[in-house]
Design a protein that fits this description.
The protein is an alpha/beta fold and 355 residues long. It is built from eleven helices and ten strands. Helix 3 packs antiparallel against helix 5 and helix 9 runs parallel beside helix 10.
Length: 355
């Protein structure tokens, strides 16, 4: 039997985003969501024999189906506004980063306004200090969204599955705010595009180590898109801290269509796959016409961003179980930060998806 492969959607523009570090607990630290991540994935998938397909542009409409136009407008001009305000010279910060955030405690029930100052606008749209904007960040984020949409095109044309090599990742982006090293929600964009392609119901299965807070938020009140997330327990001190708990089950029409399965540190393959199996049983009952797999591989044992200790074989088995749902699968890359193992982990997942 010939080796089965998955088409890999690629755009060189995804390499253009250079975060320039992060500001974590007030300290400037090296960035982890770096271009080398995608290069490591490219090498491993090429060696595995997967076919590479260039991403095609899709315009604003699919993005505006899940994001507010104000967010896109801000991201498109954030860096230029920062430079115009002189911040690369004084105080010497060459990336856009917020310093003031319009929390409910600050606003005290008064309307949210958009500030005129560039350094204040940063906190209006970005909810953390880790997700910096550089000169080519928006171009890379648009390329990642186009990769996800091209993968949707492929499965709509008959491919059983397709993988989008998305960078930056996206599952932490809400309708109108970004963070968690994410700028546009590629998984949500793909899910909505599948809905627009006449799939009455779509499920997003997120196996990134961290909760899919942005994807959850976008679809939280909808009954046509199910979001399930298997992740490290935010209550144990892990990002996004405030969200990702088991009692978040949807609201209104979306009640019961959101499922979170937070896991303790050190869970390992057996417990992780058991949680995924429970999630997929819920997905099967939902009877989606297509699935978006948010493929973060940062739950792996060597990854610095998570303590879940999942192996490559765990990822292979997870993707195989998603494929066994028997519906088209669009996989989009989310996290994964240990460069020596990142490529083989993604390759193992695609092997499971193809098998």
């Amino acid at each position: 039997m010939p080796h089965m492969t998955v088409p890999v959607v690629w755009s060189d523009d995804c390499l253009l985003h250079v975060p320039g570090g992060e500001v974590w607990v007030g300290v400037h630290t090296p960035g982890t969501e770096v271009p080398q991540r995608l290069e490591a994935i490219r090498v491993a998938l090429a060696e595995a024999g997967h076919r590479f397909v260039p991403a095609t542009t899709h315009g604003d409409a699919p993005l505006l189906a899940v994001h507010d136009p104000e967010l896109l407008d801000y991201l498109a001009d954030a860096y230029n506004g920062w430079v115009a305000a002189g911040f690369p010279v004084d105080p010497g910060q060459d990336r856009v980063v917020g310093y003031l955030f319009p929390t409910p405690g600050l606003l005290a029930g008064l309307p949210l306004r958009t500030p005129t100052a560039a350094h204040a606008r940063a906190g209006r749209f970005c909810y953390d200090t880790m997700t910096l904007v550089g000169p080519d960040t928006y171009r890379a984020a648009r390329a990642a969204a186009d990769a996800a949409l091209t993968a949707v095109d492929l499965v709509c044309a008959g491919e059983p599955s397709a993988y989008a090599a998305c960078r930056p990742p996206g599952h932490h982006v809400t309708r109108d705010a970004f963070g968690g090293s994410c700028y546009l929600n590629n998984a949500a964009i793909a899910a909505q595009a599948l809905r627009s392609a006449d799939h009455d119901r779509v499920a997003v299965v997120d196996i990134d180590a961290h909760h899919a807070n942005g994807t959850q938020s976008i679809f939280y009140e909808r009954s046509d898109v199910m979001v399930v997330s298997v992740h490290v327990d935010p209550g144990a001190g892990w990002f996004p801290h405030y969200l990702g708990f088991a009692d978040e089950t949807g609201r209104g029409a979306g009640e019961g269509v959101n499922l979170n399965l937070p896991l303790p540190e050190g869970t390992g393959d057996h417990g992780w796959l058991s949680a995924l199996e429970a999630a997929l049983e819920a997905v099967a009952r939902f009877e989606p016409g297509a699935v978006v797999l948010s493929l973060g591989v940062d739950a792996a044992a060597d990854d610095p961003e998570s303590p879940l200790r999942v192996t490559a074989e765990g990822y292979r088995s997870a993707a195989r179980r998603v494929a066994a749902l028997g519906v088209p699968v669009v996989a989009v890359q989310e996290g994964g930060y240990h460069l020596p193992t990142l490529g083989p982990l993604v390759a193992a997942a695609l092997d499971g998806l193809a098998g």
